């Protein structure tokens, strides 16, 4: 499962210190999701992990929200990220590995909730229905 987040910043660089995602919406049973990885691309609209920068990995996803860029027992990776290109579109990709034992046709939602940039919380300006 893949979720693309397009981030536009102004002329000044920013530092991301937290990104919150929701793994379940309303239908994620426990243990269906194995791990999530967050990737960054400056201006590529296509996911190619050989070209992107891996920001971090979150293991053992449970129901509800989980944080990238926040050190925890389940997160391994950067604690902050300042590699976004100013005055240009930046693409962040969240990839989620689904267990081979996941319930067939049980749709898993993935939602981008918010990010912290330079100490300010930012909510997405465009969202889509769960699923």
Entry summary:
The protein is 0% helix and 44% strand.
Percent of residues in helices comes to: under 10%
Which CATH architecture would you pick? Answer: Sandwich
* CATH structural fold name: Immunoglobulin-like
Strand arrangement within the widest β-sheet reads: 1-7-3-4-6
Strand content: 35-45%
Order of H and E elements: EEEEEEEEE
Look at the structure and give the CATH class: Mainly Beta
Averaging pLDDT over every residue, what do you get?
Answer: 80
Query: Which shape, going by the Cα principal axes?
Result: globular
The gyration radius over C-alpha positions equals: 14 Å
**Uncertain runs:** none
Largest sheet data:
5 strands, antiparallel
Alpha carbon gap, first and last residue: 10 Å
**What is the tally of helical segments?**
0
User: What's the number of domains?
Assistant: 1
Helix/strand/pairing category = mainly beta
Q: Total number of β-strand segments?
A: 9
Keywords:
four-stranded antiparallel beta sheet, Immunoglobulin-like, mainly beta
Structural account:
The chain has one domain (2-122): Sandwich (Immunoglobulin-like). 0% of the residues lie in helices and 44% in strands. It contains no helices and nine strands. It has strands at residues 2-8, 16-22, 33-41, 53-59, 65-68, 75-77, 89-98, 111-117, 120-122. The strands form two sheets. Strands 1-7-3-4-6 form a five-stranded antiparallel beta sheet, with no helix packed on it. A four-stranded antiparallel beta sheet has the order 5-2-8-9, with no helix packed on it.
